[in-house]
Amino acid sequence: MAVVPEPALDALDRRIINRLQEGLPVVERPFAAAAEALGIDEGTLLERLSRLREAGLVDRVGPMYRAEALGGDVTLAAMQVPPERLEDVAARVSAFPEVAHNYEREHTFNLWFVVAVERPEAVGRVLAAIERETGLRVYDFPKLQEFCLGLRLEV
Predict the structure, then answer these.
(1) Which of 7, 37, 44, 40 has the alpha carbon at shortest distance from 19?
(2) How far apart are CA 88 and CA 105, in angstroms?
(3) Which residue segment(s) compose the domain that 34 sits in?
(4) Above pLDDT 70, what percent of the chain?
(5) pTM
(6) Both 17 and 79 in a single domain?
(7) Is residue 102, in this structure, part of any structural domain at all?
Protein backbone atom coordinates (compact mmCIF):
# COMPACT_ATOMS: atom_id res chain seq x y z
CA MET A 1 0.00 0.00 0.00
CA ALA A 2 1.36 3.42 -0.96
CA VAL A 3 2.07 5.93 1.79
CA VAL A 4 0.23 9.18 1.14
CA PRO A 5 2.10 12.22 2.48
CA GLU A 6 0.20 14.42 4.92
CA PRO A 7 -1.00 17.62 3.25
CA ALA A 8 0.77 20.86 4.09
CA LEU A 9 -1.75 22.50 6.42
CA ASP A 10 -0.89 25.01 9.10
CA ALA A 11 -2.84 25.39 12.35
CA LEU A 12 -5.19 28.01 10.88
CA ASP A 13 -5.95 25.86 7.83
CA ARG A 14 -6.83 23.00 10.15
CA ARG A 15 -9.08 25.22 12.31
CA ILE A 16 -10.85 26.51 9.19
CA ILE A 17 -11.48 23.02 7.78
CA ASN A 18 -12.64 21.66 11.12
CA ARG A 19 -14.94 24.64 11.79
CA LEU A 20 -16.54 24.68 8.33
CA GLN A 21 -17.45 21.01 8.63
CA GLU A 22 -19.96 22.19 11.24
CA GLY A 23 -21.71 24.23 8.54
CA LEU A 24 -22.09 27.84 7.62
CA PRO A 25 -24.63 30.09 9.31
CA VAL A 26 -27.64 31.11 7.23
CA VAL A 27 -27.03 34.84 7.27
CA GLU A 28 -26.41 37.53 4.66
CA ARG A 29 -22.61 37.09 4.88
CA PRO A 30 -21.95 33.51 6.04
CA PHE A 31 -18.19 33.66 5.45
CA ALA A 32 -17.90 36.84 7.53
CA ALA A 33 -19.78 35.14 10.39
CA ALA A 34 -17.60 32.01 10.11
CA ALA A 35 -14.46 34.15 10.02
CA GLU A 36 -15.56 35.99 13.17
CA ALA A 37 -16.13 32.65 14.94
CA LEU A 38 -12.57 31.69 13.94
CA GLY A 39 -11.14 35.01 15.16
CA ILE A 40 -10.02 36.12 11.69
CA ASP A 41 -11.36 38.50 9.05
CA GLU A 42 -13.51 37.44 6.10
CA GLY A 43 -10.77 38.25 3.54
CA THR A 44 -8.32 35.93 5.29
CA LEU A 45 -10.88 33.12 5.38
CA LEU A 46 -11.73 33.50 1.69
CA GLU A 47 -8.03 33.67 0.71
CA ARG A 48 -7.26 30.55 2.73
CA LEU A 49 -10.20 28.67 1.20
CA SER A 50 -9.09 29.71 -2.26
CA ARG A 51 -5.56 28.45 -1.58
CA LEU A 52 -6.86 25.16 -0.14
CA ARG A 53 -9.04 24.70 -3.21
CA GLU A 54 -6.16 25.44 -5.62
CA ALA A 55 -4.05 22.89 -3.73
CA GLY A 56 -6.80 20.29 -4.17
CA LEU A 57 -7.36 19.93 -0.43
CA VAL A 58 -10.88 21.39 -0.46
CA ASP A 59 -13.13 20.96 -3.47
CA ARG A 60 -16.29 22.67 -2.34
CA VAL A 61 -17.79 24.71 0.49
CA GLY A 62 -21.53 25.10 0.34
CA PRO A 63 -24.92 23.79 1.31
CA MET A 64 -26.17 20.26 0.89
CA TYR A 65 -29.66 20.32 -0.62
CA ARG A 66 -32.28 17.62 -0.37
CA ALA A 67 -33.23 17.67 -4.03
CA GLU A 68 -36.26 15.43 -3.52
CA ALA A 69 -37.72 17.85 -0.96
CA LEU A 70 -37.38 20.62 -3.55
CA GLY A 71 -39.19 18.59 -6.25
CA GLY A 72 -36.04 17.16 -7.85
CA ASP A 73 -34.18 13.89 -7.62
CA VAL A 74 -30.73 12.49 -6.91
CA THR A 75 -29.18 9.23 -8.03
CA LEU A 76 -25.87 7.44 -7.68
CA ALA A 77 -24.41 6.19 -10.95
CA ALA A 78 -21.40 4.13 -11.95
CA MET A 79 -19.45 3.25 -15.07
CA GLN A 80 -16.91 0.66 -16.17
CA VAL A 81 -14.21 2.82 -17.73
CA PRO A 82 -11.08 1.45 -19.39
CA PRO A 83 -8.15 2.69 -17.25
CA GLU A 84 -6.56 4.53 -20.17
CA ARG A 85 -9.80 6.55 -20.61
CA LEU A 86 -10.55 7.23 -16.96
CA GLU A 87 -9.19 10.79 -16.79
CA ASP A 88 -10.96 11.85 -19.99
CA VAL A 89 -14.26 10.20 -19.09
CA ALA A 90 -14.20 11.66 -15.56
CA ALA A 91 -13.66 15.14 -17.03
CA ARG A 92 -16.55 14.65 -19.49
CA VAL A 93 -18.85 13.43 -16.69
CA SER A 94 -17.83 16.34 -14.44
CA ALA A 95 -18.68 18.80 -17.22
CA PHE A 96 -22.38 18.04 -16.78
CA PRO A 97 -23.85 20.65 -14.41
CA GLU A 98 -26.10 17.99 -12.86
CA VAL A 99 -23.08 15.97 -11.67
CA ALA A 100 -22.24 16.88 -8.10
CA HIS A 101 -18.93 15.00 -8.01
CA ASN A 102 -17.30 11.83 -9.25
CA TYR A 103 -14.64 9.55 -7.92
CA GLU A 104 -12.57 6.53 -8.87
CA ARG A 105 -12.90 3.21 -7.07
CA GLU A 106 -10.94 0.02 -7.32
CA HIS A 107 -13.80 -2.11 -8.59
CA THR A 108 -15.35 -3.33 -11.83
CA PHE A 109 -17.38 -0.12 -11.66
CA ASN A 110 -14.43 2.22 -11.35
CA LEU A 111 -16.07 5.62 -11.84
CA TRP A 112 -18.91 6.66 -9.55
CA PHE A 113 -20.84 9.92 -9.54
CA VAL A 114 -23.91 11.62 -8.14
CA VAL A 115 -26.51 13.26 -10.39
CA ALA A 116 -28.90 15.86 -8.95
CA VAL A 117 -31.73 17.26 -11.09
CA GLU A 118 -34.57 19.75 -10.71
CA ARG A 119 -37.22 17.28 -11.93
CA PRO A 120 -37.21 13.48 -11.39
CA GLU A 121 -37.79 12.75 -15.08
CA ALA A 122 -34.48 14.47 -15.92
CA VAL A 123 -32.35 11.74 -14.32
CA GLY A 124 -32.78 9.38 -17.28
CA ARG A 125 -32.06 12.16 -19.78
CA VAL A 126 -28.82 13.13 -18.01
CA LEU A 127 -27.62 9.54 -17.74
CA ALA A 128 -28.43 8.94 -21.42
CA ALA A 129 -26.55 12.11 -22.38
CA ILE A 130 -23.51 10.93 -20.41
CA GLU A 131 -23.68 7.59 -22.24
CA ARG A 132 -23.78 9.40 -25.60
CA GLU A 133 -20.92 11.72 -24.61
CA THR A 134 -18.64 8.93 -23.39
CA GLY A 135 -19.78 5.94 -25.45
CA LEU A 136 -19.96 3.92 -22.24
CA ARG A 137 -22.90 2.45 -20.34
CA VAL A 138 -24.03 4.24 -17.20
CA TYR A 139 -25.48 2.11 -14.39
CA ASP A 140 -28.12 3.83 -12.26
CA PHE A 141 -28.33 3.04 -8.54
CA PRO A 142 -31.33 5.05 -7.30
CA LYS A 143 -31.71 5.63 -3.59
CA LEU A 144 -34.07 3.19 -1.92
CA GLN A 145 -33.76 4.54 1.59
CA GLU A 146 -31.97 7.57 3.02
CA PHE A 147 -29.72 7.35 6.03
CA CYS A 148 -28.54 10.60 7.59
CA LEU A 149 -25.04 10.24 8.93
CA GLY A 150 -22.91 12.96 10.42
CA LEU A 151 -19.45 12.79 8.91
CA ARG A 152 -16.72 14.92 10.38
CA LEU A 153 -13.10 14.40 9.42
CA GLU A 154 -10.94 16.12 12.04
CA VAL A 155 -7.75 17.41 10.45
Answers:
(1) 37
(2) 16
(3) 11-54
(4) 93
(5) 0.68
(6) no
(7) yes
